[in-house]
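Contributing: when you submit paired examples, paste them exactly as shown. First protein:
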Amino acid sequence: MQNSLLVGLSRQVALGRELDVVANNIANLNTTGFKSDGSVFEEFLSPGARAGNLTGADSRISFVRDRATWHDLSQGAVQLTGNPLDVAIEGNGFLVVQTPRGERYTRNGALQIGPTGELVNSEGYKVQGDGGAIQFQPSDRDIAISKDGSISVREGASAKTSSLRGKIRLVSFEKAQQLQKDGGGTFAAPNKITPQTDIKSRFVQGAIEKSNVNGVIEMTRMIEVTRSYTQVAAMLQQQGDMRRNAIEKLAEVPA
């Protein structure tokens, strides 16, 4: 009886953590550039049932253990916005932004010009170019971002030639699954993971990449997890009732 309770408890813990992952996906359904997560589970076999009253050979007990989460890095839908500063990335590349916690990597291409004239993302973090932050002048107009990330502008109302303001830095990772989420659609790279310059990915100006979360699938997953949790809870309640009844019967003293 004790083994069944422990098996059920392990399943409930795993389901609870899976529910957290699903809830986070749903919460970021409309977060630009967000990548959904999935859960990875494994079977843990104990050496034995640990019961001293078994008549035969001791059997192994199977528990559930949540091993990790994985990132779904598939391309999200590209939505045209018409904003010349917005960029969507076609490929596996990431934008590099400078945060108070260091460099971070994101697919969120909803960009804007900050109060000091620097190119920033929607969270106010400076977007990094090949030479650092990208700086604009107050008189810049007709901003154009090429497929390789080069930014050109016209200076002043009478300018007929374009001036280069920089090139957006684009990086990729050989082991992207080891990236760690750092809030919203931002990733941090562990010490052993080094970003590589991405020359294959391309920018699409005037568009953003939406979240790749499938709302219907995630809601279905949430219902499945909730039902499974309820079923396990009912089984644990039954086992608890059986244990209580057994103790009450054993405690009865014959008259």
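Second protein:
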Amino acid sequence: MGLGLFFLVLGTGPLAMVMFAAKLGFGNDPNPNPVILGILAGLTFYPSLGLVA
């Protein structure tokens, strides 16, 4: 369970932080396109859920 939560935070955390920062108005772009962070989140989300379960 601990490893699954670690991968969940590691994979989706950076994307969530970019989305949250854009919502608060940090940076110049109100609609960022973090492709690499989206791919990282997509590749780690379901395996981490499997490890948690």
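If you have annotations for the second protein, write them as plain sentences, like these:
The chain is about 75% helix and 0% strand.
The chain has a mean pLDDT of 94.
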